[in-house]
C-alpha cells in the first residue's frame, strides 16, 4: 500500500496493524471470515468510481455497459449456487436486504413473527430500536427451555394466535438445523409470507450441508461475507416475478441509491469461488472443526447451549465456569483469540454482560486449520478462562496463539 502510506501514513499504519492482528490472531467470531485476495482486488478496484443507479439494461447513467455484465454475472452465479429463480444482488448489507423485504410486503403496524433477539434472532427481525421494531408489531418466538432448540409446535400455536403477515425463519446465534419445511407449513396454515434469513448458514446451504429454504420461503435473504466468504454485503432471492419486481423497486429507489458496483463485482468473484468443488470440502471441514472445538471444550467441563451444534457455530454457557461474557471475551481478546459475548436462551444476565460466548469455525477453517488445531485452540481458550486475571498466563497464551496462527498464514503466504 505504497500510495496510502505516502498520502495518509496514519491510516496506512492502522490498516497494517489490523493486517497483523488478523494474521496473528485466532478468529472465532462466527459471522466473520477471510475473503480471497481476488475478492479484495475486485472490491478495491476502479469500480468504486462509478454510479450505476438502476438495474442491468435500465441504468440512469451512461457508461454502465460493463457494469451490466458484472451485475448479471453476480446474479447468474447466485442463481446457480442456490437454484434461485429471481435475485437482487444490490443490498449493501443483510439488514438492508431484510428491510427491503419487510418494507415491500408489509404495512406499518403489521405483525412479524420472528425469533426473539435474546434467543438468537437478529436486530433487523424486530429489535425495538431497529426500523423493524419501530414500524411493525413484533411477536417473538423462543427456543424450548429444556432442549434450547426451536419448538415448531409452539411456533405454530403462536402463529395461529398472532396471525402474522410475515414469519421470519433465521438467526444470528442458533447452533441447530432450521427446518424450513416446517416453517413453510406454518406460514401456509396461517396465510403468512415466509422470509428465510440464511446469513449465517448460507455457505452450508450452498454446499448442500443444510436444508435449503429456496422454493419454500417466499423470500430468502443473506449476507455475503459470513460462511459465503465474500465481501460485506447482502442479497435477496425470491420465487416469483411479481415479488422480484416489488423487491427491486424497494431496494432501488426505495431504500438505496447507487449500487456499490465494486462490491457487486467482488460478490460475483466470491460466488465463482463458491461454485468451485473445493468450496464444499471447505464447508465440510467447517462442520468437522466446529464439532472438534466444541467437543474439546465440553470435555473440559463447559456447558454447550442445546448440548451441541449442527452448523458452524455454538454457544458456550460461561455460568458453568462461574464467568460472564464481558470479562471472558475481553481476556480472550488480550490473548489474541476473538469471540463475542452473547446472550444465551433465558439468560439471567443482561445483553451488555450476558452469560454466553458465541464461537464459530468458518475463519479458522479458511486458514487451513483442522481438528488437531481445534483441540489446541480449546486448550488455549481454557487456559485463558481459568486465568482471566493473570496477565502473565494471558501473555504466555498469546505467544502460543501467534505461533499457531503463523503456521497457517492467511495473506502472507
Ligand atoms: N452481526 C451479525 C452477527 O455477528 O451474527 C449478524 O448480522
Can you tell me about this structure?
It is built from 16 helices and 15 strands. A seven-stranded mixed β-sheet has the order 4-10-9-8-7-5-6, sandwiched between helices. Strands 11-12-15-14 form a four-stranded antiparallel β-sheet, with helices on one face. Helix 5 crosses helix 10, helix 7 packs parallel to helix 8 and helix 15 packs antiparallel against helix 16. The longest helix is centred in the C-terminal third of the chain and has 23 residues. The protein is an alpha/beta fold and 413 residues long. Bound molecules: D-serine (DSN). The site of D-serine has 5 residues, from loops.
Rg from Cα: 22 Å
Q: Which CATH first-tier class of the largest domain would you pick?
A: Alpha Beta
| CATH fold naming of the largest domain | Aspartate Aminotransferase, domain 2
Give the number of DSSP strands.
Answer: 15
Structural class: alpha/beta
Q: How many H/I helical runs?
A: 16
The helicity comes to 40-55%
Mean pLDDT, nearest integer?
A: 97
C-alpha geometry: globular
Q: Uncertain spans, ≥5 residues at pLDDT below 50?
A: none
Our estimate of the beta-strand percent is 5-15%
Span between termini = 17 Å
Number of domains: 2
Bound molecules: D-serine
| Annotated CATH homologous superfamily of the largest domain | Type I PLP-dependent aspartate aminotransferase-like (Major domain)
The major sheet is characterized as: 7 strands, mixed
- As laid out across the biggest beta sheet, the strand order is 4-10-9-8-7-5-6
Identify the CATH architecture of the largest domain. Answer: 3-Layer(aba) Sandwich
Amino acid at each position: 500500500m505504497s500510495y496510502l502510506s505516502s498520502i495518509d501514513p496514519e491510516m496506512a499504519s492502522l490498516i497494517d496493524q489490523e493486517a497483523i492482528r488478523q494474521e496473528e490472531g485466532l478468529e472465532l467470531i462466527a459471522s466473520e471470515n477471510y475473503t480471497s485476495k481476488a475478492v479484495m482486488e475486485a472490491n478495491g478496484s476502479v469500480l468504486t468510481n462509478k454510479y450505476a443507479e438502476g438495474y442491468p439494461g435500465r441504468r440512469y447513467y451512461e457508461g454502465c455497459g460493463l457494469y451490466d455484465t458484472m451485475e448479471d454475472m453476480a446474479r447468474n452465479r447466485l442463481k446457480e449456487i442456490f437454484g434461485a429463480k429471481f435475485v437482487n444482488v444490490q443490498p449493501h448489507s443483510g439488514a438492508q436486504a431484510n428491510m427491503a423485504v419487510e418494507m415491500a410486503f408489509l404495512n406499518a403496524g403489521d405483525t412479524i413473527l420472528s425469533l426473539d433477539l435474546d434467543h438468537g434472532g437478529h436486530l433487523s427481525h424486530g429489535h425495538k430500536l431497529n426500523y423493524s421494531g419501530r414500524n411493525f408489531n413484533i411477536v417473538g418466538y423462543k427456543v424450548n427451555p429444556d432442549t434450547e432448540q426451536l419448538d415448531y409446535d409452539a411456533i405454530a400455536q403462536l402463529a395461529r394466535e398472532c396471525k402474522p403477515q410475515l414469519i421470519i425463519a433465521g438467526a444470528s446465534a442458533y447452533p441447530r438445523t432450521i427446518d424450513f419445511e416446517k416453517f413453510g407449513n406454518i406460514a401456509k396454515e396461517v396465510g403468512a409470507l415466509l422470509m428465510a434469513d440464511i446469513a449465517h448458514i448460507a455457505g452450508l446451504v450452498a454446499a448442500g450441508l443444510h436444508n435449503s429454504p429456496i422454493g419454500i420461503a417466499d423470500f430468502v435473504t443473506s449476507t455475503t461475507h459470513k460462511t459465503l466468504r465474500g465481501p460485506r454485503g447482502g442479497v435477496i432471492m425470491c420465487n416469483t416475478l411479481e415479488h422480484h419486481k416489488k423487491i427491486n423497486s424497494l431496494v432501488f429507489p426505495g431504500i438505496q441509491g447507487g449500487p456499490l458496483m465494486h462490491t457487486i463485482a467482488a460478490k460475483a468473484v466470491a460466488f465463482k469461488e463458491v461454485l468451485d468443488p473445493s468450496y464444499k470440502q471447505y464447508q465440510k471441514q467447517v462442520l468437522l472443526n466446529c464439532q472438534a472445538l466444541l467437543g474439546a471444550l465440553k470435555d473440559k467441563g463447559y456447558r454447550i447451549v442445546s448440548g451441541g451444534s449442527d452448523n458452524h457455530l455454538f454457544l458456550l454457557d460461561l455460568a458453568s465456569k462461574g464467568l460472564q461474557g464481558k470479562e471472558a471475551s475481553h481476556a480472550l481478546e488480550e490473548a489474541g483469540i476473538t469471540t463475542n459475548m452473547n446472550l444465551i436462551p433465558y439468560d439471567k444476565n443482561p445483553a451488555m454482560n450476558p452469560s454466553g460466548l458465541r464461537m464459530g469455525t468458518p475463519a479458522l477453517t479458511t486458514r487451513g486449520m483442522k481438528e488437531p488445531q481445534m483441540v489446541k485452540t480449546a486448550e488455549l481458550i481454557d487456559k485463558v478462562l481459568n486465568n482471566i486475571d493473570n496477565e502473565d498466563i494471558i501473555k504466555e497464551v498469546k505467544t502460543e496463539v501467534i505461533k499457531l496462527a503463523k503456521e497457517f498464514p492467511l495473506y502472507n503466504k
